[in-house]
């Protein structure tokens, strides 16, 4: 990319040449025209005096006629020089102002500022590619979790919105195509603090390009990509993309889980949940006959999920596919006739899943007026319509963008969460239920979150030292104690232990910890902060593990050592 | 043939020749060194410098640097001359020598510029 200085120099070339020419011609003229001294003797003007005269005349200062009063010939030439120099300066200043407003120049300037800001990053950060609705939700979530990020977005107007969003930390944003590796590199792809890349543009191909670029240019950082089509998703997986997120599949899995194992769904909601979590009522989706309106990508996912769970359903779509070997009604579902044709009277629930928010609401309202106790799942396409959906109050409002955003944040913030979710949703549902029961036992109804810790020198300095140098034997149960009063347990529990490639679900309290272990924990935010103290601070650690209240300062440590142990 | 290249080469060569013309002669003899030639050298060197603006190649950067050196030397020489002629009361051999040696330094920079020009042209096999 061109440096702004070079652009400026190149643009200012013509005006500067004109200015030099004007000065040179003016000086030559004065030197050639003879002047007169006070006694009327002809005196040639020196180059120095000519330069001086032109300098103050051209800048419109005008000290008068120097060194002697001018002859009329000289005055004639001075008039010419004044006009020439005014034109020369006007041209130069005009070019300078135009340069300041020039789009390319300003872009180059912005880019340079961006690159400098990224280079100087001292805190870990993520690269978010694409600042659409999903990107903005992800950024807001990362900001809430106190994580830093930089944004690459192709649309200039969206880039401007990053500045207006008012994130807590300065957020460099660049206008550029994320498919181009140079933009990713400028955003700090190879920066030592870069913790991961989130490819969430609206274009599957662009996300794929980002995933590939990250794998090739910096293989050690994780990449998360959104893919709407299965082919692109497969392609991404073949490039070892760490997390591939398809908004509709994610929703389909949640819905299956809600139907099959509502308790596990509740657990995930408590671990992943944030302000953006899907709006649900306490009702569970009933089993029976369902009506699905809209057979697009969303509808297909819903139908697939219902098929998996063995539910009976009828599709309503204005243009139903010929291959569907199930009852299909042609129409939109916004009026009663197609709904009745689809058997709304005997149905237990309806899914309003078209890609038009107004139609979805209309379907839901009509269906409820026909049968008030229907379980209503409604799809919200645009964040801007949130107020309408809230006012309607469906049993389950699906905001696919929010699902993607929330999922992405949870995955990048808590690396161990993905394997845990995979295990409790595919096979180990019983463990999930146990986890939820234990979580309810330790945290009650308080807001909970999931986080991971690593017993390494960087993430848990004091604990790592105890394990490595003192060869202490520390059990998980001993670790999860309150640093304020060690007889009380922390409001937290361990969900997963990762050690040497193997993972253990719900490790028991007597598990001995080893240096390098990774733990996925769930609990309240307060518990998270307290546990971090135990991990980082040696005095807190010794109190929690051994019950010794060790004096902090050097002097007291010396006395304390000689005191008889009680 | 490219008009831009002709103009570019013209000004670089003219800058060097004018500079040489001014320096040529006994170093401390004011009559050997025409001040108008120095003026011409300053103007042409300024034009040559501006023409080199905005070239991002390595050779373009060196070109610009040599021109900036030449302009700097020539401007200092002009200031020394202006001071001697108008404040110090005429050019004596000592001041003439210092004006000429300053512009001789500029000449060296201009020779480097010329060499670059020739090297660039020779490496261009068209």
Q: What is the 3D shape of chain A?
A: flat
What is the H-and-E element order of chain B?
HHHH
Secondary-structure content class of chain A:
alpha/beta
End-to-end distance of chain B = 10 Å
Q: Mind telling me the C-alpha Rg of chain B? A: 16 Å
- Counting helices, strands and paired strands, the structural category of chain B is mainly alpha
Tell me which CATH architecture of the largest domain in chain A applies here.
Answer: 3-Layer(aba) Sandwich
- Continuous helix count of chain B: 4
Radius of gyration of chain A: 35 Å
Shape of chain B: elongated
Q: Give the helix tally of chain A.
A: 24
Q: Any idea of the CATH topology of the largest domain in chain A?
A: Rossmann fold
Question: What is the rounded distance between the termini of chain A?
Answer: 71 Å
The residue-averaged pLDDT of chain A reads 84
User: Most extensive interface, residues per chain?
Assistant: A-B, 22 and 15 residues
Helix fraction of chain B by DSSP (H/I, runs of at least 4): over 70%
Largest sheet of chain A: 7 strands, mixed
* Poorly predicted spans of chain A: none
Structure description:
The complex is a heterodimer of chains A (566) and B (126). Helices cover 50% and strands 16% of the residues of chain A. With 566 residues, chain A is an alpha/beta fold. Chain A has four domains: 4-101, Helix Hairpins (Orthogonal Bundle), CATH 1.10.287; 120-245, NAD(P)-binding Rossmann-like Domain (Rossmann fold); 248-413, NAD(P)-binding Rossmann-like Domain (Rossmann fold, 3-Layer(aba) Sandwich); 429-561, Regulator of K+ conductance, C-terminal domain (Alpha-Beta Plaits, 2-Layer Sandwich). In chain A, helix 11 crosses helix 12 and helix 12 crosses helix 19 (429-443). Chain A is flat, with a radius of gyration of 35 Å. The relative contact order of chain A is 0.06. Chain B has four helices and no strands. In chain B, helix 1 runs antiparallel to helix 2, helix 2 runs antiparallel to helix 3 and helix 3 (58-86) packs antiparallel against helix 4 (93-123). The termini of chain B are close together. The A-B interface holds A 2-3, 6-7, 9-13, 16-17, 20-21, 23-24, 27-28, 31, 46-49 and B 35-36, 39, 43, 46-47, 50-51, 53-54, 56, 81-82, 85-86.
């Amino acid at each position: 990319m061109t440096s702004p200085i070079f652009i400026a120099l190149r643009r200012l070339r013509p005006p500067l040449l004109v200015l030099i020419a004007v000065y040179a011609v003016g000086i030559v003229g004065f030197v050639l025209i003879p002047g007169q001294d006070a006694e009327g003797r002809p005196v040639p003007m020196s180059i120095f005096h000519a330069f001086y005269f032109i300098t103050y005349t051209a800048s419109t200062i005008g000290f008068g006629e120097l060194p002697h009063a001018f002859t009329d010939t000289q005055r004639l030439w001075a008039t010419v020089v004044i006009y020439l120099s005014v034109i020369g300066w006007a041209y130069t200043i005009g070019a300078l102002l135009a340069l300041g407003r020039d789009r390319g120049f300003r872009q180059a300037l912005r880019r340079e500022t961006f690159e400098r800001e990224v280079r100087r990053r001292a805190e870990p950060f993520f690269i978010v590619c694409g600042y659409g609705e999903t990107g903005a939700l992800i950024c807001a979530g990362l900001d809430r979790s106190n994580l830093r990020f930089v944004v690459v977005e192709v649309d200039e107007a969206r880039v401007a919105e990053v500045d207006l969003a008012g994130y807590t930390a300065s957020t460099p944003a660049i206008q550029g195509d994320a498919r181009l590796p140079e933009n990713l590199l400028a955003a700090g792809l190879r920066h030592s603090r870069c913790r991961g890349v989130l490819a969430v543009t609206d274009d599957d191909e662009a996300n794929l390009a980002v995933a590939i670029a990250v794998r090739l240019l910096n293989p050690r950082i994780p990449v998360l990509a959104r893919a709407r089509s299965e082919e692109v998703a497969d392609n991404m997986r073949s490039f070892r993309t760490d997390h591939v997120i398809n908004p509709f599949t994610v929703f389909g899995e949640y819905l299956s889980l809600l139907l099959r194992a509502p308790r596990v769904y509740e657990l995930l909601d408590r671990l992943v949940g944030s302000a953006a979590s899907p709006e649900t009522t306490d009702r569970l989706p009933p089993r029976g006959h369902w009506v699905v309106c809209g057979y697009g990508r969303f509808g297909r996912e819903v139908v697939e999920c219902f098929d998996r769970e063995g539910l009976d359903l009828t599709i309503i779509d204005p243009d139903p596919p010929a291959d569907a070997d199930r009852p299909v009604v042609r129409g939109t579902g916004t009026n009663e006739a197609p709904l009745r044709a689809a058997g709304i009277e005997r149905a237990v629930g309806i899914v309003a899943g078209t890609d038009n928010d107004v139609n979805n609401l209309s379907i839901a309202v009509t269906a409820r007026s026909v049968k008030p106790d229907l379980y209503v799942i409604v799809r919200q396409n645009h964040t801007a319509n949130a107020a309408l959906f809230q006012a309607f109050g469906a049993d389950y409002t699906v905001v696919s963008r929010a699902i993607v955003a929330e999922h992405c944040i949870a995955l990048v913030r808590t690396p161990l969460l993905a394997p845990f979710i995979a295990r409790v949703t595919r096979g180990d549902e019983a463990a999930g239920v146990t986890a939820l029961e234990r979580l309810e036992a330790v945290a009650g109804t308080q807001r909970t979150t999931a986080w991971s810790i690593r017993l390494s020198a960087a993430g848990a300095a004091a604990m790592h030292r105890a394990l490595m140098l003192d060869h202490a034997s520390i059990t998980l149960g001993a670790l999860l104690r309150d640093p304020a009063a060690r007889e009380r347990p922390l409001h937290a529990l361990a969900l997963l232990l990762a050690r040497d490639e193997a993972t253990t679900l719900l490790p028991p309290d007597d598990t001995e910890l080893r240096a390098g272990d990774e733990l996925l924990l769930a609990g309240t935010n307060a518990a998270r902060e307290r546990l971090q103290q135990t991990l980082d601070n040696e005095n807190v650690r010794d109190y929690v593990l051994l019950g010794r209240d060790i004096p902090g300062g050097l002097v007291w440590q010396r006395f304390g050592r000689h005191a008889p142990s009680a | 043939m490219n008009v831009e290249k002709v103009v570019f080469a013209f000004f670089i060569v003219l800058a060097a020749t004018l500079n040489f013309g001014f320096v040529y002669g006994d170093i401390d003899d004011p009559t050997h060194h025409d001040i108008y030639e120095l003026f011409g050298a300053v103007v042409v060197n300024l034009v040559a410098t501006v023409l080199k603006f905005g070239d991002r190649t390595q050779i373009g950067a060196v070109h610009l640097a040599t021109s900036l050196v030449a302009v700097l030397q020539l401007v200092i020489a002009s200031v020394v001359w202006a001071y001697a002629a108008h404040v110090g009361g005429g050019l004596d051999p000592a001041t003439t020598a210092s004006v000429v040696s300053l512009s001789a330094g500029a000449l060296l920079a201009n020779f480097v510029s010329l060499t670059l020009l020739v090297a660039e042209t020779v490496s261009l096999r068209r």
